[in-house]
Structures are given as structure tokens and as C-alpha cells.
Amino acid sequence: xxxxxxxxxxxxxxxxxxxxxxxxxxxxxxxxxxxxxxxxxxxxxxxxxxxxxxxxxxxxxxxxxxxxxxxxxxxxxxxxxxxxxxxxxxxxxxxxxxxxxxxxxxxxxxxxxxxxxxxxxxxxxxxxxxxxxxxxxxxxxxxxxxxxxxxxxxxxxxxxxxxxxxxxxxxxxxxxxxxxxxxxxxx
Amino acid sequence: xxxxxxxxxxxxxxxxxxxxxxxxxxxxxxxxxxxxxxxxxxxxxxxxxxxxxxxxxxxxxxxxxxxxxxxxxxxxxxxxxxxxxxxxxxxxxxxxxxxxxxxxxxxxxxxxxxxxxxxxxxxxxxxxxxxxxxxxxxxxxxxxxxxxxxxxxxxxxxxxxxxxxxxxxxxxxxxxxxxxxxxxxxx
DNA sequence: GTCTATAGCTAGATAGAC
DNA sequence: GTCTATCTAGCTATAGAC
Lengths: 187, 187
Description:
Two copies of one chain form a homodimer. By secondary structure, chain A is mostly helical. Chain A has a domain at 59-185. Chain A has helices spanning 8-26, 29-36, 40-46, 51-74, 81-95, 104-107, 112-138, 143-167, 171-185. In chain A, helix 4 (51-74) runs antiparallel to helix 5 (81-95) and helix 8 packs antiparallel against helix 9. The longest helix of chain A has 27 residues, at 112-138. Chain A is elongated and about 55 Å long. The termini of chain A are far apart. Chain A binds chain B through residues 22-27, 102-103, 105-107, 109-112, 114, 118, 121-122, 124-126, 148, 151-152, 154-160, 162-163, 165-168, 172, 175-176, 179, and chain B through 22-27, 102-103, 105-107, 109-112, 114, 118, 121-122, 124-126, 148, 151-152, 154-160, 162-163, 165-168, 172, 175-176, 179. Chain A binds a DNA duplex through residues 1-5, 28-30, 38-42, 44-46, 50-51.
């Protein structure tokens, strides 16, 4: 067994960055090879199913990130709800580089992506909503209210990333994070 | 002068649909030709600059739509602010087919699109914000408040379209339109 | 496990008949 | 103004050396 040149995490981070920047169709295998530090043919060794497999691996990588940085935080009953909220907002800001980079949910849902990854995208969105609803319940809101706030939170994140990208200004994203905080802490 | 097989409006509607569905990179010239009713070479006759020109024409087509269906409505002082609001929400719901179709702002900002159309996308977003801010002022809100509500409105539209697309369910979009109404009419 | 080289195809774009 | 036919460059994917 010859050693891997690039470890899985570095590899997936590079691939994720390219998909986020260029979208699923816009990212060519040459782009993916360049950003990952491997050659095209080596990518096929790591991901035998080709481009679709790479996309799935990146989506799965994001689910793992979410599990560790969102779900686990919200389920950590050792922290008060407002501490959990500020932690996940910090983590969200970090993964999106303060609003400077696009969401994979958007990047992977254009072109062939929606067709190829429809189930995974639906699942991923469901995790967001289910987890955020739990946070609302822990804040003391009723089920329906908590569900509404969860949806508003997800919509604010996705929408503000697009508007930030189009205006070439991160202010909408930082504004949205502040509004999300008020959504749960304002009476 | 030989007559046009397809008039400009039908042509641009078909092209817009394909870009919205597949994204800028995902839409091939064959796709664009099929959806417009013309052959590839005929598209080059109508748009000598090729794919980029088609993209610009579609973005311009949307600006014209916005001018007629958003800007003109909000500037129509014969209507009360709440009448103007409900009219533009109806128009927004209509252009996005009740949330079933993606926003061009998102579709055109992925891949090469952001680079090619960065200025146009920024301009288009600016029109939304400027116009919606005027609506807020006419409702009697202060400048800063009106600007915040305009941003929230744009973010809700964009974000809810993505979430609707990913969940394969138009509920987030219709929910967002209701929330936008409350944003202006709730005290 | 990674690489160079290349196959087979489709992309965007053009030439020229009608 | 629209079409068929075609060009070249780039794409995804594979073969086979190391």
C-alpha cells in the first residue's frame, strides 16, 4: 500500500472549495484536480464513480461537519440555549468565511446537481430544520413557532449568502446572523 | 429582411427558463436552442456575442420585467402602500411560478456567471433594495428601518426559493411571502 | 497510489447554402 | 433569418507505466 499524497480531509476541503466557487457543472475535473493537489486520474482512484462520486463525497463531508458543529452543539444540554445559539452562529460564520463564500446547498443544486443529488440535498435541509426546531423548543417556544423560526433561520442564511455574493459585500450575511440571534432571544 | 421565426419576447422567455433551470454553465447552447425554438446557429445571428450575449440579454429582460412589475408599482402614488405591496408580492409569486422555479440571480451567479455578469447582478440587486426601501419609507418607516426591511425582503425571497428547491416543496416560498407582508403591515 | 497519455465525446462557435 | 454541417477546444473518463 503506497501512502496517500493528500489525506482525505485536505482532499475534500479542496474539492468542496471548487464546487462552492464554480457550482457542480462549472467545476471541471481539471479544476477539481488543481484544487485538490492530485491529478485527474488519481481522483478516479479515490472516487471510482467519477465526478458524481466526488460530489457525493463533498456533500457527505458537509453532513459530517454539520453533525459535529451544529447538531452536537444543539444537543449539548450542558450549555444554555443562548450559548448553543451563539456557538452555532460562530460556526456558521466560520464555514462560510464570514459570508464570502457560497453555500454548497446552492452550488450543488444547479444544473445536473439537483437531479444527481436531489435526495441528499433534501436530507441535508431536513437536518437543518429538525435541529434548529429543537433549539427553538429548548428556548421554550411551541412546536409550530419553533418550526417557523427554524425555517426563517435557514432562509436567512441561504438568502443572505446569495445577496452578499451578488452585492460583493458581506454585510447582508452578518446582518442576517444578528437577526437570527434576535429571532430567538428577543421577547 | 426575412421575418423572425420566434419573436424577441418568446425567445427570451425560453432562454430565461433554461438558464434558471440549469444555471449559466449548465445550460448548453443545444439546451438554449431547444428551449428557444431556434437552431444554435440562429442564436448566434440574434446574439452575435454568443452565450455571454444571451446571458446579458436575459438579465436585461429581467430588468425590464422588474421595472414594469416592481419599480413602476412601488412608484405609483395613486395606490396606497399596502395595495402596492400586495401587488408586487403577487407579481413576485407569478414570476417564480409560486416558488417552483429558481431565481436567475442565483442561476447566473454560479460558475463563470459571477465573473461575466458581476456588474449586472450587483446593479440588479441594488434596484431591488432601492425600490423596496422606497416602499418602506412610504409606509412611514425611517430610512434605516426601511433599508433593513428591504434587505430582509430580498433575503427572504432568495433564501426561500433555494430552500423550496432543495426540499422540493413550495411551502417555504409562500411562507416567506406572508412574512414579507407582516414585515411592513404589522406594527 | 499516483502519474502521463489518450480515447471518445460534447461544448461553444463558425462557414456557407438557401 | 434560419438552417445543416463542421471546426477546435475542452470535457469526462480510461489505459497502463511506475
